[in-house]
Write a structure and sequence with these properties.
The chain is mainly α. It has a single domain, classed as Flavocytochrome C3, Chain A (Flavocytochrome C3, Chain A, domain 2), CATH 1.10.1130.10. The protein contains 11 helices and no strands.
Length: about 180
């Protein structure tokens, strides 16, 4: 009896703590590339916006709008065009699977694999005041992957119908975007 009471008590406390934690924070919404790019376009920030613009990630959604993509989707048994197919969108776009109320007015699905695809919806961490402190940014929703290779291979893998050999170290060199260290 004491064991069951302990389990029930634990569950109640867990639910209440989870509920109260959820009430303290406003859900992050997607702000879009332009909001991130306001700061992340400068030399001081490492020109991350340019790195993204010149990458295939920035074109990921556009590839779904091609006849070839629609043919691949149809061959896989999908009834919708590639640009409307969840199995395709999961690796070619951000925000397709969230409540539309969480998409800011400047967010564009056409931006493909963009800042918030990897770093999480940015409304609560986008301000300079928050971003100046990495821990504050993380506490406000910034996602920093400890193992980039694991995150990247969630899309760049053999499940993709257009998969090619993926050499993480080689590909990372093309898209890495660190903030330069300052003295």
């Amino acid at each position: 009896m004491l064991g069951k009471l302990s389990i029930v008590s634990f569950l109640i406390v867990t639910i209440l703590v989870g509920y109260s934690y959820g009430q303290d924070k406003k859900a992050n919404s997607f702000v879009g590339v332009d909001a991130c790019g306001m700061c992340h376009k400068t030399d001081k920030q490492g020109k991350q916006l340019d790195i993204w613009k010149n990458s295939k990630h920035s074109q990921a959604f556009k590839t779904l709008q091609t006849e070839k993509a629609d043919t691949i989707a149809a061959e896989l048994g999908h009834k919708t065009p590639a640009a409307q197919t969840e199995a395709c969108l999961k690796c070619h776009a951000s925000g397709f699977d969230v409540d539309k109320a969480l998409l800011g007015e400047k967010f564009k699905i056409e931006d493909g694999v963009q800042c918030e695809t990897c770093h999480g919806a940015g409304s609560n961490y986008k301000s300079l005041k928050v971003m100046k402190n990495r821990q504050d940014a993380i506490a406000n929703g910034l996602v920093v992957h400890e193992k980039n290779d694991v995150f990247c291979t969630s899309c760049h893998n053999a499940e993709s119908p257009t998969h090619v050999d993926f050499k993480f170290d080689e590909m990372w060199e093309k898209i890495k975007h660190p903030t330069p260290k300052t003295n």
